[in-house]
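FORM 12-B: Structure-to-Sequence Request
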């Protein structure tokens, strides 16, 4: 460990949130997120509007993060940013800004994989017990659904992944069919608490090994609702809470079927969740309940589940400790692999 404190300014701009955080070693001094409301009216993220909004948000967000952390730019040790995966136009704003800032301050640059950030967010110092290596991470977001074996902060092996949609898309697309706003995940979560999860049955799609598939699920929800609303045009209105509870119940069943298989196959019983969908209260509860089967489970604090820059800061901090710096020729990589 370095004797001096390390101050990292981190930027996350991979999708529709412009975020900046300042970390002192593994401690978060500030964590600012500007959500882009503009996409709600379109029912999904519009890439061109996202990159424009990042352009206007980035300087105010960075200034706010520095102000809240009470840190002067001259104290910074390095700049971390999300290299990918994500939307090209969005990533470019964060990447270009981070490079320019590092160059002007003459400090090193740390390029971070977005999903490493979601996983390593567990190591942010928040007074909670941390997982020890190796552990399994279920990373669930609007773009990803993966089971990852985490051997160290730089050795992360994907054991299974989705072959089509991510689980966040299954939440959002089902919600869109139900007439819920974007993103629908949090709304389904809220409504599901009031409904009966066994009222309606949806199919569990088949996928090989530890992989996932969600595109058939969304289609099944669509056909089910088309069939029912033909019989009763108020079907959705009259059953919204039960439909949401049943959708959420099935998605949890799909996620945990493969996660349980991964625990058995690897013999690793420490299991963490990360990514925007891990904010889901049903998923959190179900994971906790697995402790009765001998699992040790880790759930990140709420503010570090959906996209944020603190997670990019902690992942950058681990790279900093290993002198794993990026060159100024680094580029945004929308489809980067783990
Ligand atoms: O990680 P994230 O903020 O962005 C991506 O990297 O994709 O994840 C966003 C996803 C969206 O699909 C959103 O609906 C979902 O996370 N989400 C939730 C909840 N909160 C956010 N899904 C289910 N329940 C929630 N409480
Ligand atoms: Zn994310």
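FORM 12-B RESPONSE
SEQUENCE OUT:
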């Amino acid at each position: 460990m370095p004797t001096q404190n390390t101050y990292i300014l981190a930027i996350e701009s991979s999708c529709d949130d412009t975020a900046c955080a300042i970390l002192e070693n593994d401690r978060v001094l500030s964590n600012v997120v500007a959500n882009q409301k503009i996409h709600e009216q379109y029912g999904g993220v519009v890439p061109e509007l996202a990159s424009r909004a990042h352009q206007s948000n980035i300087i105010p967000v960075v200034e706010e993060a520095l102000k809240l952390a009470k840190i002067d730019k001259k104290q910074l040790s390095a700049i971390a940013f999300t290299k990918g995966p994500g939307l090209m136009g969005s990533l470019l704003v964060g990447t270009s800004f981070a490079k320019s800032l590092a160059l002007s301050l003459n400090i090193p640059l740390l390029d971070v994989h977005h999903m490493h950030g979601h996983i390593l967010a567990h190591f942010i110092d928040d007074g909670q017990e941390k997982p020890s290596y190796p552990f399994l991470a279920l990373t669930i977001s609007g773009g990803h659904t993966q089971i990852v074996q985490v051997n160290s902060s730089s050795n992360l092996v994907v054991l299974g992944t989705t072959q089509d949609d991510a689980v966040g898309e299954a939440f959002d697309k089902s919600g869109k069919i139900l007439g819920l706003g974007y993103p629908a995940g949090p709304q389904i979560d809220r409504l599901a608490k009031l409904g009966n999860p066994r009222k309606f049955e949806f199919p569990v799609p088949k996928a090989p090994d530890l992989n996932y598939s969600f595109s058939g699920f969304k289609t099944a929800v669509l056909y089910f609702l088309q069939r029912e609303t033909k019989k009763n045009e108020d079907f959705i209105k009259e059953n919204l809470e039960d439909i949401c509870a049943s959708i959420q119940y099935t998605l949890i069943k799909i996620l945990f079927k493969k996660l349980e298989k991964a625990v058995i196959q690897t013999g690793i019983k420490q299991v963490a969740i990360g990514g925007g969908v891990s904010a889901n209260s049903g998923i959190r509860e179900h994971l906790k309940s697995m402790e009765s089967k001998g699992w040790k489970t880790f759930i990140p604090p709420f503010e570090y589940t959906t996209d944020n820059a603190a997670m990019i800061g902690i992942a950058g901090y681990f790279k900093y400790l290993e002198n794993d710096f990026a060159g100024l020729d680094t580029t945004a990589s929308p489809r980067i692999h783990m």
